[in-house]
Amino acid sequence: MSESQLYRRTFYIDGAWAEPAGTETLDVISPSTEAPVGGVPAATTADIDRAVAAARAAFDDGPWPRTSPAERAEVLTRAAAELRKREDEIARVTTDEMGCAASQSKAAQTGLVAVVFDYYAELIRSYEFERLVTAGPRAGIVTSEPVGVVGAIVPWNAPITLAAWKTAPALAAGCPVVLKPAPESPLSAYVFAEAMEAAGVPAGLVNVVPGGREVGEHLVTHPGVDKIAFTGSTAAGKRIMSLCGEQVKRVSLELGGKSASILLDDADLATVVPTVVHGGMHLSGQVCGAHTRVLVPRSRYEEALAIAGAAADAEPVGDPHDPAVIVGPLVAERQRARVEGLIAGAVADGVRVVAGGKRPAHLPKGWYVAPTILGDVHNGLRIAREEIFGPVLSFIPYEDSDDAADAVRIANDSDYGLSGGVWSGDPARALAVARRLRTGSVAVNGSYPPFPLVPFGGFKQSGLGRELGPEGLEGFLEKRSIGLPPALVPGA
């Protein structure tokens, strides 16, 4: 990547590249070399104030909230086209800044970006923003109004995907956005801003200000912000929810997970287990919806563990720039320390390390953890309760039965409910089990729902609200009812 792409000096505020108010910078550290690869200015509260003021003016005084859905759709379509032009650049930047393996970066970091803008452009062309309701002599209209200025806070693991999931429906609804990317992965957000600028998105509608926790809290509590849309850890989500609660501020939260894949007793383990293991290594396991608990019938448990161990050992680990590599580093040293601590705690609890469990010997530099399979896990252990965000899968046995009641019990025995999967030689049987899981999305035999047409989000501590689908648009709309006098009622 060029120097200008990796070292940025300004913010994107009110449709222009704005000088920072402060002098501090955020160094971007390569997870594979542990050396700086870029940097951006660190936003101050004054920078957040400028961005919110620009968004506020665009909402209160600008035409955007009052434009027709067709006009907004045209802008979204142009934004999608500009994002498509930059997919390779976004993929390369995320490999540099957060260690996403280049073999996955195009699909993982851009596969649901431009298409989400296109989806909402198409949706609002036909969406019913206003409807007439009659009840005898009385009548009224129900309108869907933009919620206002949106503060969007996104994490480092899929920074532009999650920025698109918030920005596209917000713009479609008529809302301006102040986007705060994570300090670990701010560089790709500048490519996103360049796409918005090139697409002619009106000034003030998209503002990009990277910064740390302090400015994030300032954005959350800012009186000029009407809604916070957040993706991140459950702990951070609880803090944000409490801050929003003090102001009765609208908030949507996409948080952590501890999802389970249930392998029924008729599943083809030779095929299914390597597939589940490979899926668990996506983005080095740094995925909120990762299926990190694998539930296997006790009668086939040792068979599954043997296959899983071999599959994990076969996953290529190394430099994320190498196209043959599948598992790159974790994003930061603190993240590796957390994963290693959870593995060590599991071993102390009597868990068996079937594969991995340590740093790869051939990688002395970089924040790597070898693909890890843990056996002899039960659902009461910390390793089975807490989100790990690393390349670690816990295999948990359950008691065999035709209805997989024990497996469903274990899967649902979690503070989380984000994702899940069921595998069976009988798809109808797998679907019946899937319907009993208390989770926001379920893959049946590896078939995930057709995002972005359907909602994504979680039950319980996995979040509040939904992204994608019509529900994702509705999260940025307020409903208003207006009574009509007889003279204004059609046909009266």
UniProtKB/TrEMBL annotation:
It comes from the Bacteria. The keyword Oxidoreductase applies. SUPFAM superfamilies: ALDH-like. Gene3D superfamilies: Aldehyde Dehydrogenase, Chain A, domain 1, Aldehyde Dehydrogenase, Chain A, domain 2. Residues 17-481 form the Aldehyde dehydrogenase domain. InterPro entries: Ald_DH/histidinol_DH, Ald_DH_C, Ald_DH_CS_GLU, Ald_DH_N, Aldehyde_DH_dom. Keywords: Oxidoreductase. The active site is at residue 254. GO terms for molecular function: oxidoreductase activity, acting on the aldehyde or oxo group of donors, NAD or NADP as acceptor. Belongs to the aldehyde dehydrogenase family. This is Aldehyde dehydrogenase.
